[in-house]
TrEMBL record:
It comes from the Bacteria. It comes from Devosia yakushimensis. InterPro entries: Acyl_CoA_acyltransferase, GNAT_dom, N-acetyltransferase. PROSITE patterns: GNAT. This is N-acetyltransferase.
Length: 174
């Protein structure tokens, strides 16, 4: 069973079929997809995305969470870990972290809050995570760096330049 992670302002939980309308709102926004695929997603693509997320939990015991506002229950984004088997050199050889928020929720520290909860959970069993970020996505690069990710490669992915970053769990002395 996927965990439910809570923070001061957010609830992170596994996707359900009922999340389709909120997820479609998220992934059909051109500002959201600007650095992720470059175009808004179709309803069919969003439905496939939700099914892929559910499948991650079933097969890998990790996956993506829908991020909801703790007070209103509104879907504001997604955060999680995945293995997309990307055709990339060097290959991505650890769970890949990703995050996305609706534009009206950006700039409030919510992505950092969600990622901190995710990584605190992941650090219990995953010694290393990676992320792939468009080199022009300065806010995501800044957030990744603040959370301990460091660049390790600059490959191309689907013909476009990208940045690969990694984060190792730091062992703290007892």
């Amino acid at each position: 069973m996927p965990p439910i992670l809570t923070t001061e302002r957010l609830i992170l939980r596994a996707h359900t079929a009922a999340d389709f309308p909120g997820c479609y709102t998220l992934w059909s926004d051109p500002d959201v997809t600007r650095f992720i695929g470059g175009r808004p997603s179709t309803p069919e693509e969003v439905w496939s995305r939700i099914l892929r997320y559910i499948g991650h939990w079933q097969v890998l015991d990790y996956g993506y969470f829908v991020i909801t506002d703790r007070e209103s229950g509104t879907i504001i984004g997604e955060v999680g870990l995945a293995d997309f088997h990307r055709d990339c050199d060097p290959p991505i050889d650890a769970p890949e972290a990703g995050w996305v928020l609706l534009p009206q929720y950006q700039g409030r520290g919510l992505a950092r809050e969600a990622l901190t909860a995710l990584l605190t959970w992941a650090d219990q069993t995953m010694p290393r995570t990676v992320c792939m970020i468009d080199p022009d996505n300065a806010p995501s690069l800044k957030l990744a760096t603040a959370l301990g990710y460091t660049e390790y490669a600059r490959p191309t992915y689907k013909g476009e330049p990208t940045t690969l970053l990694e984060r190792m769990v730091r062992n703290t002395p007892a």
